[in-house]
Specification:
about 230 residues, mainly alpha, 2 domains, two-stranded antiparallel sheet, 13 helices, about 5% strand
Length: about 230
Amino acid sequence: MLTVLGLAAHRTVASDPAKIVGPNACAECHKQEAEAWKGSHHFKTFREMPRRKEANEIAERMGVQRIRSESLCLNCHYTVQQKDNSKQPVAGISCESCHSAGEDWIKVHSGDSGKTEKTETKTEKESRWKLADSKGMIRPSSLYRLAKNCYGCHVVPQEDLVNKGGHPAGSAFEMVSWLQGEVRHNTWHSKGKENVPASAARKRMLYLIGLGVELETGIRAVSRATARKR
């Protein structure tokens, strides 16, 4: 049976609390993206989830006393940061939930190779992005890795949580509608002037990769769902 630790490992996100920098570090440059995020359910879950009747009923059935302090809930519903030898939720589902814990790559991805945006060459920029990728950053162009993070939580591969706790086994999630809906924050290249939708080609890729990863995640969940009796 998939354990709580197994549930955390099922996600591809590099969610080490010691390497979480928090959404404020991202918002320093990505102001418009942060504002778009603040209007999403991902942001609101930080305050709203512990107040929900359904969430507290699931927590009670699972023996969870405090939703914001036990890993069964924290792994998917919060961003957890290491502070003074303790792990604390600092946000709901935030930047690093999707793009991975940022300590190793945040300065690399925004460094302009030690130059300015206008003087950095194309080759230098490509090398910088490659280095950020190698340090764990999941960029919007990395659709498979991005989808793995989404479905790592939007498909719930823990039998006890579903059958005993009454948690839904999944959500009404589909890559295109979500990433082109309230999760969309495509404002960087227009310097915040517009939050443009993805191109038709990108939407097709989101749809196809989303279907594939959903199937993969579901099959893996089924394979781990029940221990064989002897």
